[in-house]
Design a protein that fits this description.
This protein is an alpha+beta fold and 106 residues long. The chain has a single domain (9-105), classed as Ubiquitin-like (UB roll), CATH 3.10.20.90. The chain has helices spanning 35-42, 44-47, 87-105, and strands spanning 9-17, 22-30, 58-60, 63-65, 76-79. It has a five-stranded mixed sheet, covered by helices on one side.
Length: 106
């Protein structure tokens, strides 16, 4: 009987977070598999129909990646939502608030 080389399976996670909850889906997928394909296979888009996979940035452990990025065993694919406020604007608002608080104490 001839041995059949089975495709190696990768264990990966697909994660999406909203302000209300985090969804984490663990998958075993045949290698090679891209970040985009892992998202499609996860069923996440059915749970979160608001996600436009053509528009949402993807990352692996906090590092932005292209949708075609091939995954390694143990990778966590993250879908990023737009920022509520630009980080520079947030710092400006915080500085204004601190100045106001300091001025009212004097």
């Amino acid at each position: 009987m001839a041995e059949v080389d089975a495709e190696p399976l990768l264990t990966v996670e697909v994660v999406y977070a909203t302000p209300e909850r985090q969804t984490l889906i663990k998958l075993r997928l045949p290698s090679p598999v891209s970040a985009r394909e892992a998202v499609l296979q996860s069923g996440l888009l059915a749970r979160h129909p608001e996600i436009d996979l053509d528009q949402v940035p993807l990352g692996i452990f906090g590092e932005a990646v292209a949708p075609g990025q091939l995954l390694a065993d143990g990778d966590r694919v993250e879908l990023y939502r737009p920022l509520a406020i630009d980080p520079r604007e947030a710092r400006r608002q915080l500085a204004r608030h601190r100045r106001t608080m300091r001025d009212t104490r004097e």
